[in-house]
């Protein structure tokens, strides 16, 4: 009888442990956690938005050399496959540096 009571208590503890739902798993307790569409862009001023667009255009025009090399390598399948094994720098050197040196 003692073992049956002990087994029941142990089973209850196991069920309580496995079925416990923490409050961390819930997304939010707020009633309305999302911003409506009208107010979605109000936290960024138009001037900051304009500056961000200008900086993005500047970054697109003046990309670092390694990024340009990687984009060139991505357009050529053999270079891309070689890059998966040896890296983009080695792949670019193999497929594109030799052509520049030959010209």
TrEMBL record:
Q: List the disulfide bonds.
A: 73-79
Gene Ontology cellular-component annotations: extracellular matrix; extracellular region
Residues covered by the Gla domain:
51-97
Q: Which UniProt keywords apply?
A: Calcium, Chondrogenesis, Developmental protein, Differentiation, Disulfide bond, Gamma-carboxyglutamic acid, Metal-binding, Osteogenesis, Phosphoprotein, Secreted, Signal
> PTM comment for this protein?
Gamma-carboxyglutamate residues are formed by vitamin K dependent carboxylation. These residues are essential for the binding of calcium.
Cleaved signal peptide residues: 1-19
Q: Could you name the domain of life of the organism this protein comes from?
A: Eukaryota
| Phosphoprotein as UniProt keyword | yes
Signal as a keyword of this entry, yes or no, is yes
Gene Ontology annotations of biological process type: cartilage development; cell differentiation; ossification; regulation of bone mineralization
Pfam family example for this protein?
BGLAP_C
Protein family according to the UniProt entry: Belongs to the osteocalcin/matrix Gla protein family.
Identify this protein by name.
Answer: Matrix Gla protein
Source organism (scientific name): Saimiri boliviensis boliviensis
Name of the coding gene: MGP
